[in-house]
Amino acid sequence: MPDIAAVKAALTAQRIETPSWGYGNSGTRFKVFAQAGVPRTVREKLDDAAAVHEFTGVAPQVSLHIPWDRTDDYAALAAYAKERGLELGAINSNTFQDDSYRLGSVCHPDAAVRRKAVDHLLDCVDIMDATGSRDLKLWFADGTNYPGQDDVVGRQDRLAESLSTVYERLGEGQRLLLEYKLFEPAFYTTDVPDWGTSYAHCLRLGPRAKVVVDTGHHAPGTNIEFIVAFLLREGRLGAFDFNSRFYADDDLMVGSADPFQLFRIMHEVAKNGGLAPETRVAFMLDQCHNIEAKVPAVIRSVMNVQEATAKALLVDLDALGAAQRGGDVLAANAVLMDAYNTDVRPLLAEIREERGLAPDPVAAYLASGRQERIAAERVGGEQAGWGA
Amino acid sequence: MPDIAAVKAALTAQRIETPSWGYGNSGTRFKVFAQAGVPRTVREKLDDAAAVHEFTGVAPQVSLHIPWDRTDDYAALAAYAKERGLELGAINSNTFQDDSYRLGSVCHPDAAVRRKAVDHLLDCVDIMDATGSRDLKLWFADGTNYPGQDDVVGRQDRLAESLSTVYERLGEGQRLLLEYKLFEPAFYTTDVPDWGTSYAHCLRLGPRAKVVVDTGHHAPGTNIEFIVAFLLREGRLGAFDFNSRFYADDDLMVGSADPFQLFRIMHEVAKNGGLAPETRVAFMLDQCHNIEAKVPAVIRSVMNVQEATAKALLVDLDALGAAQRGGDVLAANAVLMDAYNTDVRPLLAEIREERGLAPDPVAAYLASGRQERIAAERVGGEQAGWGA
Amino acid sequence: MPDIAAVKAALTAQRIETPSWGYGNSGTRFKVFAQAGVPRTVREKLDDAAAVHEFTGVAPQVSLHIPWDRTDDYAALAAYAKERGLELGAINSNTFQDDSYRLGSVCHPDAAVRRKAVDHLLDCVDIMDATGSRDLKLWFADGTNYPGQDDVVGRQDRLAESLSTVYERLGEGQRLLLEYKLFEPAFYTTDVPDWGTSYAHCLRLGPRAKVVVDTGHHAPGTNIEFIVAFLLREGRLGAFDFNSRFYADDDLMVGSADPFQLFRIMHEVAKNGGLAPETRVAFMLDQCHNIEAKVPAVIRSVMNVQEATAKALLVDLDALGAAQRGGDVLAANAVLMDAYNTDVRPLLAEIREERGLAPDPVAAYLASGRQERIAAERVGGEQAGWGA
Amino acid sequence: MPDIAAVKAALTAQRIETPSWGYGNSGTRFKVFAQAGVPRTVREKLDDAAAVHEFTGVAPQVSLHIPWDRTDDYAALAAYAKERGLELGAINSNTFQDDSYRLGSVCHPDAAVRRKAVDHLLDCVDIMDATGSRDLKLWFADGTNYPGQDDVVGRQDRLAESLSTVYERLGEGQRLLLEYKLFEPAFYTTDVPDWGTSYAHCLRLGPRAKVVVDTGHHAPGTNIEFIVAFLLREGRLGAFDFNSRFYADDDLMVGSADPFQLFRIMHEVAKNGGLAPETRVAFMLDQCHNIEAKVPAVIRSVMNVQEATAKALLVDLDALGAAQRGGDVLAANAVLMDAYNTDVRPLLAEIREERGLAPDPVAAYLASGRQERIAAERVGGEQAGWGA
């Protein structure tokens, strides 16, 4: 049986990075519903992230998105974060919201557009230098909508060249994380549609290029935990973008659509060393809280990752291995399900209380009055969203 | 073998309705790329629709979307259309872009919101009276994002009550067309997710309630032509919203992703009487030309429907029936494929030339200089889009 | 909060019907792996079913499949069942394993084949009369593999006529349950692909025709619990065929692929009256234990349904309704998740012990030595499988 | 514009390999329908393949499947083939039909089972030496049905070791082709689920390890032609297993479900050098003619590949490149569609007649009386199928 002290230590050590854009407004192509209290500035986003960390104790890092979080003085921003118990995490680039990117960015047929995109990526590395961020997280909206629109192989060549330029610029200890996505906003092809494409580019780039697994970016029926296990075996799992989905890239709260899948993913992570700090797997959220209150939704999401992790850590690996080696299908499955069926909320509450936190972070946040306070205070100005 | 004169007559008689919003800007949740020459007003949208009809000869109807096409005087708008050889088609409602619709419209838990939504739908019927439109086309963004968010059955009750109020208001010869959609913008459930749900509500409402088949609104693997055939058998196929998709509701040009599927759909339509005017099936486009030039994309889409229809009309139904009755799988399939593999472009060019049209409408449009003219003229003001 | 006594009463009253074919050999098109101890006769299948009921206490009914379970004297078989504490449940027809059914059965273009199929269905009703079974469960492998192979509407006409003949033959209190399936073994179209098709036929047939929801028969992304809720609202949910799937119709143990989905389904059942005996919803398993031991797999499956039901019964409907009416997305979701995250195994163990059963049925079965006994005794003869 | 002489030369040079098992009986898990005239022996399978080559002129190779095509003297079999104008193609292994493979073969937890499987693969290489076959084609049914059943990473380790042993045994000029498949017969994980997994193993093995793309083995929504283009860019596309599917691995006639997809695949092949003999891409069929006559279905399939290839060769690459470089989405798409919409049947008929073949191979085969002859002659004995 798992050693409960070790389980508690692992849960205490776990870190979940929250995204600055998760605190801003978001929506679908049909409508963005604004919410009261949404941050107007990157500092207000950090304030919200600090609240999430205050109530959960495991979310000290915040991913930034450039240009949505552009500022004049990144060192000052890092200091602002530090004062609130935070550190600035991955820098996420944006090569999809300029009019010149209508047909792509780093894969665009026009060299001038590619140059512009690469310059932006290099700027992001500059920002990493200033913020002390370790990771450059790259997701490209590049692709085509219609068969024939552009040359698939030509686009790969341009992608490889662009990535290489950026990889060469990385400083000591910095990493390039390459995300893949099956579809959207490109409909016919995306230029990095699956983990295999990301992996092949990372292999060419070098050891500090790693794959990002966004849990909402796969075709129906894909076994995501297989990919996770495979990438861990290859030493190429860089980070998760956690969220969940019923149909497309819904960006719902992680664990809300298929909590069993999240558990299976965390089981592969735990079993294959992915929770060890030296493996350097980053556990990030990448969500859109279109209709629900944002800060409590992020808190809930952090808790969902914790619960899945706790269950994964409770898997009796000795019993599992024995059943697997013995070819006992039902017994092996039962070992896994025993852990999944355990109610880990009391264990996590206990860990929180030992650390001086409230046992139920959502309830504590709602009782704190903070939500009403920011709704009252954050009036006027322009609310942050994907476009700003 | 099909009688070519009858084929030509059917192709000449076919009408394809274009959507006013297809001429405006559109995009994904990530970015709307503006294009030069896009209409600023509903009248300019009609001008574009008139150009499509001028070059194709088969697109005299234009669907309106309220409030995007709101105007003070619908009778004047209808007159404006008539002067350009057009008539105003289906009125499309919008119950998804007001802040009060965050949790739904006609299915919202709050009766006041439902009343607001129903009032809008009744307004749309008033507009139909003014424009002479036959069809009220209803698509609801209603649904939920999270399990438990609302009561599925309660929402059906509210939906049924709302639809009933609207149906009762319809005038002589007016129809209610109810669209279904598996997902987006609601992710966990939509309130009319499939044809069965729409069909069941239509049965309750009465004979003038019909189902709309949007070709992008199904789960992967769904056989759309089966649904079309089934609804024709039941007398409940009201209209198509044509477009095409690779993954989700991509809203690409109809026939661009799977032209064989479009042919199979038109084969069921043609074989089961759906081209006969008395069946009153409306053939509408519902597309988003996010990255391609809009007017030529609509022309191309009209042509794609024509080509699929021509192939469907060329199916040798006698030979097909004989092979089917004889259980000859390969022969029956071959009869269908023979028609599909036929190049019908010369036939359609011939029909156009007999009507005094250019044989290649896209080439003719591009050669006309109109695109450059509207790009030069339509400067200033605010371009039309989904939000305006 | 739910009344625990009522929860326990509902769990005690619940009945889960097991399928005779689940005890026999099964496999994929690639290979059927035989297992030691598999029944050779229908009576041995009933012995296995009796063992499942002995250890779970909630599985007294057994579905039969004709001709796999054909016998000379059904009354004697019913008596044999009764002696073991069982009763014979739904009669499942088979119109797919005769060479004449290559192109379909009740939808076949040849009237002689249709007559043969209908005669088989009428025989099944005769068997129901003899066994006292309430339900005729119909799943048709009918469909086409290639576009054009047969006439979709013609097949519907033949289906309707065949069903009508069978419906007319039903005796007092007997029901016709019509299953739907998106694909397999027909690949291009099946003749009853979705709930809408089944529902439309049931409406025409009459009040004793109901829809069967097999949880493995939907397109990816389908919200099954929506369908369940909708059919309950319409009074047309006849039965479940429970199993689970990752990709196609995998027929895995129910709850093993997506336990949260199973919970959501049972939540809709419980909330909408589906557990009340007068609603007459039959909860059946329809699974294939291709590689795992069969009797313990059926016991596990019964327990999985019980656990999902228990969680569904623990949903605090008052709190849920209040959150839903108040439009509090996070709170409503949290109420549902609180029930789902509860470990209900202790509650079910308690119920079992109160009834004199072992708290862990799988462990008790394995400890009983029965599996070794049947493996030793059931030697020689021909093991039961899908073909026999 | 493409040079017609070059197009004709390429079409004349193209070779399509047919599978010995395509001539035998096949079916689904529900039923195998036997057909009159089906071969009883491997030599009769070769006779059928010779007929396909006789009427099409482009199908001289035949893939063998061991043990279904096991014989005492492979050299004699090769001579038999040669007398009929054929040569023996890829050797396909079978590690899924022995009872010991219930939990896998080369990935099985038991070393003895793995050894057995590897020994079979080494036997296949011996057979290649005897037949002169170039390619060892490996598809593994290995995988798991339930979460926890076995260790994903452990199975990869075993797979890698097994593959390495086989790769080392390959002789001069021999290749190892590794197929991937998302699902079936394993449901939870397969051990080579996607191209990325196959590619990663091939990279480790060496330059003579290549990926096989079976067109029916992907998740819904996958862009297969992207994978094809990517693998050609990497020099790792070994072969196609052509067939088509609507839902799962339906193994229908290639081009029958989505002929436009087949064209897009062949477009990437043609544009990226895949038709050049030195690229050594093998174009194989892998189909199941469950309900249609087998020899004419194979002929039709060969013709479907030819038609897609012809259309691909007719793409005006100069015009396409110009439109792509210019960012003209509609024009680039139109260039592709112009080729697709061309009726290439007259061109292929012309090529056949120039080679002394009948212009319509299916019609010529049916008129030849051969089908009736084999139906009359091949009576008695045991028909070949997947199990024999």
SSE order and pairing:
The structure is a homotetramer of 388-residue chains.
Chain A: H1 4-13, E1 18-19, H2 42-56, E2 61-65, H3 74-83, E3 87-92, H4 111-131, E4 135-138, E5 143-144, H5 152-169, E6 175-179, E7 189-190, H6 195-205, E8 209-214, H7 224-234, E9 237-242, H8 259-271, E10 282-285, H9 294-313, H10 317-325, H11 329-341, H12 345-354, H13 361-367, H14 370-377
Parallel strand pairs in A: 1-2, 2-3, 3-4, 4-6, 6-8, 8-9, 9-10
Antiparallel strand pairs in A: 5-7
Helix pairs in contact in A: 1-9, 2-9, 4-5, 7-8, 8-9, 9-11, 9-13, 10-11
Verbal overview:
- The structure is a homotetramer of 388-residue chains.
- The first copy, chain A, is an alpha/beta fold.
- The first copy, chain A, has a single domain (4-377), classed as Divalent-metal-dependent TIM barrel enzymes (TIM Barrel).
- Chain A has 14 helices and ten strands.
- In chain A, the strands form two sheets. The first copy, chain A, has an eight-stranded parallel beta sheet with strand order 1-2-3-4-6-8-9-10. In chain A, strands 5-7 form a two-stranded antiparallel ribbon.
- In chain A, helix 4 packs parallel to helix 5 and helix 9 (294-313) runs antiparallel to helix 13 (361-367).
- Chain A is globular and about 60 Å long.
- Chain A starts with a helix and ends in an 11-residue tail after the last helix.
- Chains A and B meet through loops of A and loops of B.
